[in-house]
Design a protein that fits this description.
- By secondary structure, the protein is α/β, with parallel strands linked by helices.
- The chain folds into two domains: 169 residues, HUPs (Rossmann fold, 3-Layer(aba) Sandwich), CATH 3.40.50.620; 93 residues, Pantoate-beta-alanine ligase, C-terminal domain (Pantoate--beta-alanine Ligase, Chain: A,domain 2), CATH 3.30.1300.10.
- It has nine helices and nine strands.
- The strands form two sheets. It has a six-stranded parallel beta sheet, sandwiched between helices. A three-stranded antiparallel beta sheet has the order 7-8-9, with helices on one face.
- Strand 5, helix 7 and strand 6 form a beta-alpha-beta unit.
- The longest helix has 22 residues.
- The chain starts with a strand and ends with a strand.
- It binds adenosine monophosphate (AMP).
- Adenosine monophosphate (AMP) binds next to helix 2 and strand 5.
- GO terms for molecular function: ATP binding; pantoate-beta-alanine ligase activity.
Length: 310
């Protein structure tokens, strides 16, 4: 049975409050759609934690800069619904709002069409007519992906806050594929006293090791093959650590060589503490190795946690 789809935020809140009045718990899995096994693993986890699960499918304009791939982000809403139906449709509800930022679409269009100067710092209009309140997790958002995408995490933290306020879940499940995002949401929930338990799940991978991502569909066959260098080099790095190589700089160089050798354009390779996300010089248990690299026009991220006694 296909899940119920709720498109309006007031209806979503009403639905959640009805569920709560029945003393049932709610899990939330925020996604941007084009669901794959990684997303479904989060939904399965949520179904074990909560009585009902809300899967939000919303491509958040607030986390894309004007030069990024918002317009080409893949979507297949009916495919997503079928995948969710195959899980446990009755306990899953899909929240698929049209736009969570435009409070006054008509007026905004008039202003833009009227040719007035507008300041665009992300794909969400700034300047009073639309959205102007943002959540920033100031230190954690700065490194890793935040360096090349300075407005990204404020968009993520803000949309997740909005979803938390609309859905009012007991649990929210995130993937560790977006490691920095998961840590930022955990910190935000702690700092702002959200009464929501944040759960992080391991990365789901294709058989050949590639981290699953909605963006993988935009890789050519050849780029996809070359992109395997990311997961391969991360696995090699972890193996080297267990063999006693604990110098961060050497391991970074090894990963960079592998990825660049496969014609990937590196955004970053960083070895950081799992909680603080601060760089470390000597590798020890409790670090995570994070990579972001471009293959063609597609930016991929991946990481591997090191949790061994050395
Ligand atoms: P997205 O639709 O890319 O915004 O992702 C929605 C959620 O799914 C986020 O919490 C991601 O971290 C998670 N996710 C995406 N890809 C994977 C994966 N390969 N394994 C586990 N979780 C994932």
């Amino acid at each position: 049975m296909e899940p119920e789809v709720i498109r309006d935020k007031e209806a979503m809140r009403k639905w959640s409050r009805t569920i709560r009045s029945q003393n049932k718990t709610i899990g939330l899995v925020p996604t941007m759609g084009y669901l794959h096994e990684g997303h479904l693993s989060l939904v399965r986890q949520s179904l074990t934690l909560a009585d009902v699960t809300v899967v939000s499918i919303y491509v958040n304009p607030g986390q894309f800069s004007p030069t990024e791939d918002l317009s080409t982000y893949p979507s297949d809403f009916s495919g997503d619904l079928s995948k969710l139906a195959a899980l446990s449709g009755a306990k899953v509800v899909v929240f698929n709002p049209k736009n969570l930022y435009d409070y006054n679409e008509g007026e905004r269009k008039k202003k833009i069409n009227g040719g007035g100067e507008k300041k665009v710092v992300s794909c969400v209009e700034e300047g009073g007519l639309g959205h102007e309140t943002w959540i920033r997790v100031e230190r954690l958002e700065k490194g890793l992906c935040g360096k090349s995408r300075p407005a990204f995490f404020r968009g993520v933290a803000t949309i997740v806050t909005k979803l938390f306020n609309i859905v009012e879940p007991d649990f929210a499940v995130f993937g560790k594929k977006d490691y920095q995002q998961w840590r930022i949401i955990q910190r935000m929930v702690r700092d702002l006293d959200f009464g929501i338990e944040i759960v992080g799940l391991d990365i789901a991978r294709e058989k050949d090791g590639l981290a699953m991502s909605s963006r993988n569909v935009r890789l050519s066959d050849e780029e996809r093959q070359r992109a395997l260098s990311i997961s391969k080099s991360l696995a090699m790095a972890k193996a080297s650590v267990t063999e006693g190589k604990t110098n961060s700089a050497e391991l970074r160089d090894m990963i960079i060589q592998e990825v660049v050798g496969a014609a990937g354009r590196i955004d970053y390779v960083e070895i950081v503490d799992q909680e603080s996300l601060e760089g470390v010089e000597e590798i020890k248990s409790g670090v995570v190795i994070c990579v972001a690299a471009w293959f063609g026009t597609v930016r991929l991220i991946d990481n591997i946690e090191i949790n061994v006694s050395l």
